[in-house]
User: Fold these one by one.
Assistant:
Number 1:
Amino acid sequence: MTSGAGPVVQLKHVTVCRSGVVVLDDINLSVNKADFCAIIGPNGAGKTTLLKVILGLVEPKSGEVLVFGKPPRELGAQKAKIGYVPQVSSIDLRFPISVFETVLMGTFARLGVGARPRSADYQAARAALERLGIAELADKPIGRLSAGQRQRVFIARALVNNPELLLLDEPTTGVDTAVTAGFYTLLRQLKETGITVILVSHDIGVVASYVDSVACLNRSLFAHCRPDEVQCTEALRAMYGCDVAYLHHGEAPHIVVEEHE
Amino acid sequence: MTDLVAYGYMQRALLAAVLIGGVCAVIGVYVVLRGLAFIGAGIAHASFGGVAIGAALGVNPVGAAIVFCLLVAWAIGYSSKKSGVKEDTAVGIFFAVTMALGVLIVGLMEGYRVDLMSYLFGSIISVTWQDLWMTVSVAAVIAILVAVFYKDLLFIVFDPEAAIVAGLPVELLYYLLLSMMALVIVTAIKVVGIVLVSALVVIPAAAALQLTERFNRAMLASAAIGVSSCVVGLFAADWLGVSPGAAIVLLEAAVFGVTAAVSPVRRRAL
């Protein structure tokens, strides 16, 4: 499925500056196929920027970004293999659009400018709604959903093209804990089907019990390792500048910590 | 009232009102949802500079205004994206500079009797066959562009980042939207004038968005409100002996007031 055998996402010495200020400093990150990776860090750590670098929305000052083995801007038609779930706060919830129309937008990536969606695209949108168990919400305006329902809508949109890579920006913001658990289970299931999942979050504790690896970010990447190992590294303290609640993830087998410094 | 339609000038005015009321309202839905209303006002005022340049060069003032406004629209878009200048600051600068340019040029042209009032406040009754032909062409171009790029413009207005990720030429589509605004606004100046034209773009869309939570229905409702306000406003102005431009804008404002008061969208949100 994935082009080549290399990692799905690879960042080599990526540095990003904004108005002269370094927001990402020499980031090295490698995410393999069917990995479920969380990028965690405090507010302003550059998490969203890192995601945008992978998406090709932000051009790094130096370093190399490879997605499916190519720079994100040279992906062309392969862009349809990336599913992106933006931060809810970036969406105008009063926008006059229904759940179904929102999900249908996911198909525009392969349609091209000026082309109209065809019956196959409508079917794909309907299938994505069913996959996420929100088919009955199809005609509702997006402003009339609960936070948990809305999150499923944007995941459905990201899944319409059967992506190989799913990127989520703070997907659990404003969602209550019970719904969040169900949500991570859903992402876990997607990962089991072979989708590479990368999510950005400040929600360390909950994330850790579901993901395969955690990348701790605060301008630099402090560690990229199995979640159960983060607790014993200096990473969290270095990242947050103080002691924080450590992560727990019992059963996972121990593997070598991949330090990037 | 039916007698009025027998007059040639009234037929032309009516046709112009229907076409302009319609296209302004259709574009207006994208403009309102993307928050481009102030850019619309800026483009409208820039057209004064364009009209003056056209008059100075001895070419069709409206044609000159179209070219000039396209350039200004792109310049506003470019300067707000590429230089650190905020969009409303860019508009604020272009707005005044282009107006000043117009005033300067008109002042320098001795003996030139451009009917400034008709550009500032519109004169739909004096629509010529040439004006009408231009209006029909612009309306046709806009209708085709909206039909072709309907879903793409919707995507960039709703979620520009996801649109970039999906591989859409978002910047190009944004400039297309600005260009459509410039075309529509310059054409509409004949009806309500530079000062009032942004109302034709903004108010019907704002009213329609009070009534429905569906984009396609908002567009239809906006067009219906725009067309009917222009037609009714035109007849009312003739009957009352007042300025058609002012009558149309005030009528649209009244429609907006009613939709906001009865709005199912707003009531459900409360």
Number 2:
Amino acid sequence: MDQQMAKQRSRATGAVRSRLVFEQLNPWVTFSYYVVTIACSMVFLHPIFLLVELLIVVGVNYVARVRKQMVMVLEGSIFMVAFIMVLNPLINNRGAHVIWTFGGTLITVEAIFYGFMMALSLVIVLLTFLSYNKVLTSQKFMYLFSRISPKLTLLTMITLRFVPLFIRRLKNISQAQTVRGINVNRGSSRQRSIGVVKMMEVLLVRSFTDALQTADSMNARGYGSGQRSSYQRYRFKQRDLLCLGWFIPLSGLCFYAASQGIGRMVVYPALGSLGLSLTGWLVLLGVAVLFSFPLILEAWEWLWWNLLKS
Amino acid sequence: MAVVELIKVVNFNFEYALAKKRSLININLAINSGDFITIAGDSGSGKTTLLRQFKPELWPVGKREGQILFEGQSISELAKRQSAQSIGMVFQNPDDQLVMDNVIQELAFSLENIDVPADVIQQRIAELVSFLGLQEILYEDVHNLSGGQKQMVNLAAVLILRPKLLILDEPTAQLDPIATKEFISLLNRVHDELGIAIVMSEHILDDVLPLSNKLWILKQGELMADGPTTAVLKQLWTEPHLRNFIPDVPFLFLNQQIAAQLPVSDLPLTVLTGRELMQRGHVEVQAEAKSRISHDENGVVAKLSHLSFEYDKNGHYILDDLNLSVHQKDWLAIIGKNGTGKTTLLKAIMGFITLRRGSVKLLDKKLATWTKKTDQFYREVSYLSQTPSDYFSYDTVQEEYEERAKQLNMATPVEAAQNMMRDMTIDQIANRNPHDASGGEQQLIALGLLLMSNPKLLLLDEPTKGLDPIRRQKLGDILQKRQTEQNLTIIMVSHDMNFSAQFANRCALLFDGKLVAQAEPHQFFADNFFYTTTVNRLLRYQLPNVIERGEVIP
């Protein structure tokens, strides 16, 4: 039954029975991973860096089981990369190696290359958001930002809950209205618009009466009776601390290197060399480790269950 | 433990703001610790109004006279936080009470409101979850829970505040019979093991009466009877209007024929005690099983062949090669547990969902082509869903009916509307907003709207859900009249076995995507062991064919 399947699915993304080790970490750790990786993909504009990052992000999405969406995004990105590679030289005339001119517009190798790198970095960010959506559920997001405004967080959570409810309800109402002869899809445009207005009215009236009941239930359980406490579901465990212990310093080092110009290919005014210095390779290793954080955890888990456990 | 008086109500009257008459009249009652009280009465008798008086933060706007005391103090002086921790309340609709998006947060929400520190919250959740056995669904998204589970979570979210008194307003009205039994046995544990006093309003008393020590009957705002369960049941028997509220087992023992053979002082309330009494007293019951007319020689109105439906690719088949023929004037009741695809089947017949395989033929026309001519189709084939309020579009009941009549191009829309409202016995509420009507009235309003077009085939989804026994009888009578006089064919899905046994002329069981048993009701229920009516369970040892109380000769 679909309901049961949905149950299993939701269990898989739940905090306790998660598929990924990464999902079990405190939301703050998860969140810092995404902040760091997205920043990295925008800071290190170098083809080798970008390609390595892309490969690892694809790997992360693969283990995070968002393969279907990933294939869709990758298909779309081919066009996006092509589009940006064409657009950037058209609006950007910098660069030394001119390959074509028309009507005062210079098409340069540098601009095409820069467009390619920008597009690649954008693809990496898009792909990162796929696993982000899966791992950082709305609850975790709320947990992260509830400190800023508990009232607003509660309001947002209730609102988020109502959206799917609204959609389901609207479908049922439109079916019921069709049966009683008020049809939204047929008749003159006047009739149709009357139908739509009626339907929205029914939806609002119903949702309003239901919301009153929700308010009653909140009231009956003491909501608004004074100071509220806050129950945190995600505690900060030792493991989280250990993870942050190496992740944050390593990120710091990498960003320091970036500020020194390492891992940034010189494009303008003239295309620099593709090669990396020794420190360049070391920073690349560091970035690769940062990106592979979920994969490292997964690999360790696999090793433990398959080889180390006796 | 000495009995403590939790609530005392003295000469209480209540009148809603802008109302013309009082909704509660001269109420005097007391709730003691350890009580399990059931409140019954037809829709609009003031049950909800009365229950809400015990929660000052939920007081409806209006004029109050008299006194309500909680533990000797006026209840209006009870602070909100104190009230939340002393008196818990569970409402009818399982969905609307849930605030957060998963179970553990829902439980934490109650405690957060009263400023309990996080570590204590953790401890209280741990304790309650172990007591109620909620481990399996602790992190479940509330959308994914069944109705019964949702109501259990609602109960848990109130119990976690450790109340002394639990108030429940028709908590099982939206649940199927199995979920109802589970919920009530949970209430029994809460009452017996935790010693929490319970006050609960209900329409269907079969399951809850054996647990109650007191029964209150409300009639038009007055407390008509209050006292020990059996005494009140005997009093009810003398009121023809309210007699329908008596559950089957005590009903039979109050019946003249049996009462003459076996005068009992303590009425049996369960099948077990009832049957023991009968067997010990060698009671012979006279009954006549009224076999239903078969309409098989009439033309076929709905023919479903090889219906298959699934939600996802390679998903589980909700409907799996299902075949069905319904003849003119048939009243087919399809019975099955919640989630077996009963609603899906009706939606398939209406063409609301795209079938994977199979075809539907209604009134000798192919559904796929016919639904394109919407106006004509929806006049001849009609469908009443589980939420009648979805059908309303205007501000008063009268306007709904008149607009519907105009839409159907009737010659005299005003008269047509009046006639239909009279048929539906809702002419008293003609000037009210349909959304303000009670659940039972809403059902009748929506049904009337659909019957205006004189449909030849009517599909009903759980038509008796949330109806009191009086409205339920009325609904059955209206439909039966249409069936015999205007050749209406009805396909109904329901888990109300008593209603199906009383009115349907064919019954079928939906299981695993197929209709597994299809027979005349007597045959159907006599063959079933679990899925059968209370009357059949009680009497089957001597009268295997009797399925409803009307067949026992008075």
